[in-house]
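Long-time lurker. I teach an intro course on protein structure, and each term I like to show students one example going from raw sequence to a predicted 3D structure in token notation. This year I'd like something fresh instead of my usual example. Would anyone be willing to generate the tokens for the chain below so I can use it in lecture? Attribution to the forum is fine with me.
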Amino acid sequence: RMAILDDGVHPEVCTLAGNYLIDEKLHVRTLKKNTVTPYSHGTMCARIVRLYTDFNNVDVFSIQILEKETWRGSIEGLLKAFELCVSLDIRLINLSAGTYAYEDFARIEEAVRYLLDSDRILVAATGNRGTVTYPAYLPDVIGVEYRQELIDDAYIYCQDLLTRIDFQASSRHKIVLGGHEIDTPISNSYAAPLITAKILTILRSNQKANKNEILR
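-- Reply from a regular --
Happy to contribute to a lecture. Here you go:
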């Protein structure tokens, strides 16, 4: 089971096993109808994952935590989404968002520790400002940042002891939309799904692989 925590995933990418929204009152709403466009940020992340692996025998979940117009959300919504991932027994989580706010770090760290202690794998993009971003900088989270000269499915294992970022990866992917091929923008949020795809490929053959086995 894999989840994309973002602004929503359009079902044309794949059949969704679950489609949820964390609303501003922190209620978990099941979305019975599609609420996003085929060009939403979360949909683009899902397209990148699918570009480099397949979803055979994978249940894909969309958990909407970001506003479609602003791509912003709340820490409370993110923490609620983490709880939902555990309750749904989701193993792999792709998160292209984070926080720079120091006052949020302790709460994020506690929630992520609970998530990882429950045997989840969290792939998180670092922020585009180049400053400390949680949860990407946390130990045992698989942190990802883009490297400009990389293209397609190229990536480098570069475990940084200061930032704890594990991978530099391409964010330049060729996606077909409406019959036209486009290149995704250069952004950390489009580098993370590449690493998610690589991990998903491993998990499809070894569901019990832990982080160290995945990194090897």
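Some talking points for your students: The first strand starts at residue 2 and ends at 6. The CA atoms of residues 38 and 44 lie 8 Å apart.
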